[in-house]
Amino acid sequence: MHELSLCQSIGTIVRQHAAERQVQVVHLTVGQLRQVVPETLVYCWSIVNEGTVCAGSVLDIDHVPGELTCSDCGERTTMEEMRIVCGACGSSRVTVTGGEELLVTSIELAEAG
Question: How far apart are CA 101 and CA 75, in angstroms?
Fold first, then answer.
């Protein structure tokens, strides 16, 4: 369950930027090739952040499909399955050009006060 260690790292980053303000929403971009289970990530997030400024915050996850560029035909295709082959010609001479992301894109904080 690598989601637990991911949440620990994400929590550290978010808490540093929150500067003691209560965190309401954490926006993430997660690529398909990261093989993250969203429900497990949300569950681990609640456990890791008990008693912190992130307690009760929500993860807003933007899923990015895997994307490949073919060296043979030049097509750029979205992965339909977890197969690293060109969706247009079937070649295995491809470069992964998307879907490996794992980014904290923004956080929403409670009003200071």
Answer: 21
